[in-house]
Amino acid sequence: MAKPILFSGIQPSERLHVGNYFGALEHFAALQESGKFDCLFCVVDLHSITESFDPKEKKEQILAVAADFLAAGLDPARSVIFQQSQVAAHSELAWILNTITPIGELERMTQYKDKAARQKENVNVGLFDYPVLMAADILLYRAAAVPVGDDQLQHIELARTLARKFNNRFGKTFIEPKGLLARTPRIMSLKDPAKKMSKSQPEGCLFLDDDADAVRAKIARAVTDSGSEVAYDPDHRPGLANLLDLYAAVDPDRREPKTIAKLFAGKQYADFKRGLAEAVARRFEPYRKAKAELARHPERITAMLAEGSAKANRMAAETMHDVKEKLGLAV
Ligand code: AMP
Ligand code: TRP
After folding, report:
1. What is the mean pLDDT of residues 231-239?
2. Distance 10 CA to ligand 2 centre (A)
3. Ligand 1 binding pocket, CB closer than 6 Å
4. Could you give all domains of the chain from N- to C-terminal order, each with its CATH number?
């Protein structure tokens, strides 16, 4: 029996940070290892051009995210790793789904509202339509499972709605996908524990390729709360709780944040921060090495994406054939 399909994607824009790692990449690798799914992992470049960008940097950003996939343990021999814009069916299905998407559903999208407020000079139709392209990404492969951070659940809900609507109107075609959340679905900014760590605020980010010195400096400056005892109390001490969540995420023994707080009982915040910085730096050392090695052979990454995209194109063609039949477009 064929396994259920799993799909996820990451935009090639700024460098990836530890939020992307624990909310997405690490989880992708674990799901691949579980052997329960046939996995597709996509560099969603068409999504990334809805925000201001420099064409001169795009190719490098695409190759960098593909290298992040590999450094995190995704394996092209077992998973399809590919580039969205090399599979034209993503755009084609997005157009078709547009015709069954009520504008009101898109107007409610939190991410759209946030981004539109942030980039007032560039509120383009692509930014508005972003969730429909995302639904197309998922439905095109009839994916059942979609690992994401919690900020993406609203978009997955739309993909479910559109699958249901299409099936009701034109006959059973799509699967309603489910979002899968990681153990740490949300890492907050080092500068403001009320906001999630985000590429749009680089000063609050811990990037995956930050070296040990940068990690130490950033964690030393991370916002904590007044108080001096190390204790896990997300409601009253959210800054410290975020750092404890991060510690738990990098801990090789996978201990809970509360257990980690106990290890530092009677110690100062500064001691805890030093311990955390070392744990983070140690955790990402092999990752940085792997990525540096991959960066020396960009042609290998290009070839891998071409191969993955060819596979994805074959899978997508089957769905598009079915979709066109259902719509009465096949003459
Ligand atoms: P993006 O960089 O927005 O394309 O995000 C890539 C993936 O990382 C998505 O699945 C996001 O939900 C996830 N992600 C982004 N920021 C965070 C964060 N601060 N904490 C946890 N997951 C995140
Ligand atoms: N919108 C997602 C993000 O910002 C990226 C994405 C695009 C995605 N298409 C997808 C994630 C399909 C999962 C499935 O993180």
Report:
1. 93
2. 6
3. 10-11, 19-20, 23-24, 148-149, 151-152, 185-187, 196-199
4. 5-186+298-327 (3.40.50.620), 209-292 (1.10.240.10)
